[in-house]
Design goal:
Elements lengths: L15 H75 L4 H9 L10 H8 L1 H7 L2 H31 L5 H6 L3 H24 L4 H17 L4 H23 L1
Helix pairs in contact: 1-2, 1-5, 1-7, 5-7
C-alpha cells in the first residue's frame, strides 16, 4: 500500500504562510548575525580598552614606584647626615673624614617627567583610565615630587653653597632637622598616595615586580650603546693619565 505524504496547502511554496515563515526566519537569522557581529566587536573593543587602561596604569605606577625609591633613599641620606653631625660633635678631630663623607651623603633625587607629561597633558589618556580619584592621586603625587626636589634637595644645596661648610662650627651649626622633618612628611604622603593608587587599580606587589622586570628587560635590550660608552670612558681616562704624567715632567 502506497502512502503519499502531502504538504499542507498553507505551507506550500508561494503560499502566504510559507512566505511569512521564510521572512520571519530571514529576519531572525539577520538579527542574530548583526548581534553576533556587533557583540563580538563590542567585546573586542572592550578588551582593547581594558588592556590600554591596564598598560597606562602600570606605566604610571611604575614611574611612581621608581620615584618613591629615589625619594626614600634621599630621605635616608638626610638622616645619615645628622648622624655624621653627631659624630663630629662628639669628636671634632675627625672633621676632615666626616666632611668628605658628608659631601657624598647629601640627598639627591633622580626621575624623569616623561610619564608625568604624557599622563597630565593627554585627555585621551585620562579618559582611558576613567577613574577621577586615581587621576587626582597621581596629580598630587607628582605635585609632591616636584615640591620635594625644590624645597628639600635644591634648597639644601643652595644653603650649603652659601654657608662656609668647610669649617667645624658651620658644619655643626647647619640645621638639618628642618629638612629631615620636611623630607619625611613628603615621603610619607607620596607613599600613601602610591598605596591608594595600587588599591584603586587592583595592582599587587607581584604585579609591580613583574612589570618592573619586563621594563628592565626591554630597556636592557635597547641599550646597546653602553658598550661603546665604556670604551669611550677608557679612552678618556687613558688620555687624562697622559695629561697628568705630562704635567709632572
Amino acid at each position: 500500500m502506497n502512502i503519499k505524504l502531502h504538504t499542507p496547502k498553507t505551507l506550500k511554496s508561494g503560499s502566504g504562510m510559507s512566505t511569512a515563515k521564510q521572512l520571519l526566519l530571514s529576519i531572525v537569522a539577520t538579527s542574530i548575525s548583526i548581534a553576533l557581529t556587533f557583540g563580538t566587536a563590542a567585546i573586542v573593543d572592550s578588551n582593547k580598552k581594558a588592556n590600554e587602561k591596564r598598560e597606562i596604569v602600570m606605566m604610571v605606577m611604575y614611574d611612581m614606584y621608581n620615584s618613591l625609591q629615589s625619594f626614600e633613599q634621599a630621605d635616608s641620606m638626610i638622616y645619615h647626615t645628622m648622624n655624621l653631625q653627631l659624630r663630629l660633635a662628639e669628636d671634632t678631630t675627625q672633621f676632615t673624614n666626616i666632611y668628605n663623607e658628608l659631601l657624598v651623603s647629601l640627598p639627591f633625587v633622580e626621575y624623569t617627567e616623561t610619564t608625568e607629561r604624557i599622563f597630565s597633558s593627554n585627555i585621551e589618556t585620562i579618559n582611558t583610565v576613567g577613574d577621577v580619584f586615581f587621576t587626582e592621586n597621581v596629580a598630587d603625587f607628582y605635585r609632591l615630587r616636584n615640591h620635594y626636589k625644590t624645597m628639600v634637595c635644591d634648597s639644601l644645596f643652595h644653603h650649603l653653597r652659601i654657608d662656609d661648610f668647610s669649617r667645624v662650627d658651620s658644619a655643626l651649626g647647619f640645621n638639618f632637622i628642618e629638612y629631615a622633618i620636611m623630607s619625611g612628611g613628603f615621603v610619607r604622603n607620596m607613599k600613601r598616595l602610591f598605596d591608594q593608587c595600587k588599591q584603586m587599580m587592583d595592582v599587587s606587589t607581584d604585579d609591580m615586580e613583574a612589570y618592573r622586570k619586563e621594563r628592565m628587560k626591554m630597556e636592557e635590550s635597547i641599550s646597546g650603546g653602553n658598550d661603546e660608552w665604556e670604551v669611550k670612558l677608557k679612552e678618556l681616562r687613558a688620555l687624562q693619565d697622559k695629561i697628568d704624567q705630562a704635567k709632572k715632567k
